[in-house]
Amino acid sequence: MKNNIFITGFMGCGKTSVGRVLSQRLGWTFVDLDQVIVDRAGTSIKEIFASKGEPAFRAVETAALAEVASRQSQVVSTGGGAVIAPQNREAMRGSGRIVNLTASVETIAARVTGDSERPLLAADASVERISSMLQGREEYYADADLRIDTTGKTIEAVASEVIDSL
Ligand code: S3P
Q1: Is the pTM of this model over 0.95?
Q2: Quick check: CB of 118 below 6 Å from ligand 1?
Q3: Could you say which of 4, 18, 108, 140 has the lowest number of CB atoms within 10 Å?
């Protein structure tokens, strides 16, 4: 069994920031799955959504995750929708542990407001829209070894919680 830590959670829950700190503390490789996709595609996520559509993005995401999951001693920050595809959840389950970061809807809304790089919230990043997306994804986010509410916590504090709990 591989020892990776996969960080899941909605946009704006601190996956990348926490993942980076966690990897430094553990001395492991940090992998930002969105960045792997951008490197592979040679263009931004916003551009992939615009030119090829979400299904094409999800296909690249699944391929990137499968490749990353074959290695070990990594902290992997996944994109907020990576948990949706069953094969992605299986890839993560079979390659380490899953840490799900959460935050209050208000916190998420405040963190993502004005961010034009997130295509799924570009047209509407209201509390209502975020709540409805969260509701649709909750069962997938709940499929984790550890869940941490990041609301009001520092990145360092969340990283410490992960280390203490795993
Ligand atoms: C997405 C989240 C984004 C990125 C893409 C789709 C989602 O990643 O993968 O825009 O479906 O929630 P972050 O959660 O890192 O913003």
Answers
A1: yes
A2: yes
A3: 140
